[in-house]
Structure formats: structure tokens, C-alpha cells
Design a protein that fits this description.
alpha/beta; 7-stranded mixed sheet
Length: 193
């Protein structure tokens, strides 16, 4: 299979071999581009965004990662407008990552769309499966949050620091914990300004 065929196959959620020469090379290219992006810290927004445009599937305006940003492939990441990720963001994007507008990530946020096979032999042979992650608009993900495959996080939601998100989180809530659970709704009484 060509890389394009493998990319499409991975998005089906079926088991795939993560150790093909094409996928190994694609990860290498992502490392080189994220190295270039991270080294560009301190240069103009235009220069930095030009590097991201070579790496990501799509991105809006005002997309910014503090160093060090890492992703598995990059070509399965779509980010809306006005996105900010604090230090040490990791995105394993085999299954696809979609992020809306006005989204904030605290430091050390990780999104993991791929998972290794449960069977030990298959795992040793490099088999994985992937499911997408979708994050809505106006979402704040706190420091050290881990978001697992197949999760959708609704608009305007806040995920508290240190959470492990294993299931969908609805819109307009504060959620936290291991595993992450809804704590309460966000209401008009939360306005402070």
C-alpha cells in the first residue's frame, strides 16, 4: 500500500501495521518539521505559521504552540482560529484530530488517537488501531490532561488539570478526574467580568 492508501485505511478504525516503511518515514518527517517549528521560537508569527502549514492538514489564523510541540504525523490535525497550546503538547494523530476555534491547552496536554493491539503477538508485530478526537469551540484543556482515542469534547467546556479523558464530554460543563467526569454545568453565574 502507498502512504496515501495507508492514511485512508488507518482512518477506518481497522487494525493497521504501524511499522511499515511509509509510516516510519512519515513520522520521521513530522519530527523534522516539529524540530524546525520548535527551533523557530522567537521568529515572526508568519514564519512559524508557514512551518505549521507544511505539517498540519489545515489550520486557521493565530495558531500557536509553545515549545516543544510534537505530533505523530501532522497530516491528520485540523485546527481552527485562535488556538494556543502551552509547553510540551503531544498529538498522536493517526485517527485524526479536529480542534475548533478559540481553544486553549495548558502545558503538557496529550491527545492519543492510536492504540496498540491488545493481543501481545499483534502488539509486538506493530499492530494498532485509531479513532478520531474532536474538540469543539471555546474549550479550555487544563495542564497535564490526557485525551484518549474516540473522544469528543463539546463547545465551551473546561477539562481540569491532570484529567484522563476516556469518554465524550458534553458542551458547557466543567469536567475533571481520572477518569474524567462532568462536575457541573457552566452557568451565567460563572461570569465575573
Amino acid at each position: 500500500m502507498t502512504l496515501e492508501e495507508q492514511k485512508q485505511f488507518i482512518l477506518t478504525g481497522e487494525m493497521y501495521n504501524d511499522l511499515t516503511k511509509e509510516l516510519v518515514e512519515a513520522r520521521k518527517q513530522a519530527v523534522l518539521l516539529t524540530n524546525e517549528y520548535n527551533a523557530s521560537f522567537g521568529t515572526s508569527a508568519e514564519e512559524r505559521e508557514a512551518i505549521l502549514k507544511r505539517l498540519l492538514k489545515s489550520m486557521g489564523t493565530d495558531v500557536y504552540f509553545e515549545p516543544n510541540f510534537r505530533c505523530e504525523f501532522g497530516y491528520n490535525i485540523s485546527i481552527g482560529n485562535h488556538f494556543y497550546a502551552n509547553f510540551d503538547c503531544v498529538m498522536l494523530d493517526g485517527g485524526g484530530i479536529e480542534i475548533g476555534d478559540h481553544v486553549l491547552f495548558g502545558p503538557r496536554v496529550g491527545i492519543y488517537t492510536s492504540n496498540h493491539a491488545l493481543n501481545a503477538k499483534e502488539r509486538a508485530d506493530g499492530y494498532c488501531y485509531a479513532k478520531p478526537v474532536k474538540i469543539g469551540n471555546n474549550v479550555w484543556i487544563g495542564a497535564g490532561v490526557h485525551i484518549n482515542q474516540g473522544v469528543t469534547i463539546g463547545d465551551n467546556t473546561i477539562v481540569g488539570s491532570g484529567s484522563v479523558v476516556t469518554k465524550d464530554i458534553p458542551a458547557n460543563v466543567v469536567a475533571a478526574g481520572v477518569p474524567c467526569k462532568v462536575i457541573r454545568k457552566i452557568t451565567e453565574e460563572d461570569k465575573r467580568a
